[in-house]
Amino acid sequence: MPTSLRLLSGLPLAALLVVGAARAPAPTPQAVLPVQPMLAADAGPLLTVQGLRFRDLNRDGRLDPYEDWRLPIARRVGDLVGRMTLEEKAGTMMHGSLAAVDSSVGASQIGYDMKAAEAQITGQKITSFITRLAVAPVRMAEQNNAIQAIAARGRLGIPITISTDPRHHFQAVLGASGETRGYSQWPETLGFAALRDPALMRRFATVARQEYRATGIHQALSPQADLFTDPRWSRGTGTFGANAALARAMVEAYVTGFQGSDTGLVRDGVSTVVKHWVGYGANPEGFDGHNYYGRIARLDNAALETHILPFTGAFQAGVSGVMPTYDILEGPSIEGRPLEAVGAGFNAQLLWLLRQRYGFQGMVLSDWGITRDCTAACRDPKVPHTPMEIAMPWGVEQLSPAQRYAKGVNAGIDQFGGVTEPEMIVAGVRSGAISQARVDEAVARILAIKFQLGLFENPMVDPAAAARINPPEVQREALAAQAASQVLLKNAGGLLPLKPGTRVWLKGIDPAVVRAHGLEPAATMAQAQVAILRTETPFERLHPLHFFGSRQHEGRLDFRPGDADYDAVATAAERMPVVMALFLDRPAIMTAIAPKAQAILGNFGVSDAALLDAITGRVPPRGRLPFELPSSMAAVAAQDPAKGDDSAAPLFPYGAGE
User: Fold this and answer.
1) 639 and which of 58, 152, 250, 647 could share a cystine (Cβ 3.0–4.6 Å)?
2) What is the set of domains in the chain, with CATH numbers?
3) What general EC class does the enzyme of this chain belong to (predicted)?
């Protein structure tokens, strides 16, 4: 087993479960004095022992083992677990959502609802939350400090772990990704896959890690190690494409950069939670597992092994956490037994595979809302949905919420995402449905990450430092990555790069950026020499009333007459050469439209400036397709959703790019 797999992120599990509340002994004399860490002086009283300072987290006037930063983390964790009440442990096993003053789910440009946060932290003893704020970095730092100040007043002073969905890219979909808002902006992860450059992937993750920590964020609910095997799937943008070997290399680089080393999480790192274990993306018709109509994925044992491969890159890097998929997997067997027909968060076989075959001993965090009731409205995509209908208890709909918690814990879940019901864990322990030992094991894994991140010493950040993230030189790096990640699929007659002074007709592009690149925006189509048109991969809203279906791109991928983008390209092509800038959030079918464009640039999130950098030759595009582009919807319908790049006669194969 690699060294990184012996870590919880870094700690043998047996050592973590040493409990007891003995006082810290005097340290053994050392040749090198301990290095005094920075302490949060504004988050409670401090102690001075032998000339060193410590936080008095529980305010008892004594240095307890869990407060002593000189001790091994295993000892500190064991001591703290032994001091916690059942209610405090149950709260630790929840991963809530920080509500905002104007949004119960926290999607806000203002700030947190501090009264609601205090009720969850002080009342329910919850110490892990996702942030969905879309605010400037300084505001984010200030708001997260205020959350930590609430926690510092608690009985044991346990700090808050604040997580986030990805927020450094272009797509912002509630429940999957957030707005950039002051953080550096890079291509989607598909763009990094197109570049096939693990060193650049690691560089991005290093920058993102520094920006997260500067603003008080400690955990990345990413990367997506899922394979983009069905081209209709709406969640593929956050993956590394359809090739398992490429995805594995990029996942390993991503985790290494975020966590701060290639052997696991370090003090100034960001804990990563790789997702979604496993088989997510193998859904017939590409329907997503957030939805009742997309709850089943189908794949055989060979395909399951392929879908597992990218996760092994995360394991090699010592990833801190794993998030199971929502989906019920139909088809595979483990140890000769067919998988139970329940979502992966309830599936003891899939979590046994994770722990035993792959040696993962870190935290398992469920995806959001798996214990909630899926009501009639939740099951019917023809009925308007609100956040109240969000629930994904796939395969266990017949169980009560309490039974779902017990089944999840006993299957291997350590922490439940998107719910704040610690009383369910308490009731499960008291009824005998959940063992105290299993709770202690889960809590130890969660606390170990907090200790590794140094949050018990200093959970606060400096808003002035947050103001300095994303300096011009970093955004130039990000811009160059955007430009380079584009895929030049066609360049008939050497149209690109465009020459200075070319008069251009524009769609979806800022004329000021065009002028800054030496081109001349045309006032009318008749005056233009070349058209530059932004386009998107076609999609349908097949479930417009469903909460997630209304936000996801589903259905067809082919350009057809009557589509706004098709008609714009066709109209321009009658008058001049067309440069088509296509956002490939899904693999577009370009059979009907490709002949009309003289140049085609596929992108995976690109600003106007980066697009024009490529068009004018400032930064030559060097991306290669991370998935094939099929030739027809009939070919898509005939391919296996669990196998990547397997459609008949693709128009552009995997790896295409001039």
Assistant:
1) 647
2) 65-466 (3.20.20.300), 472-638 (3.40.50.1700)
3) hydrolase
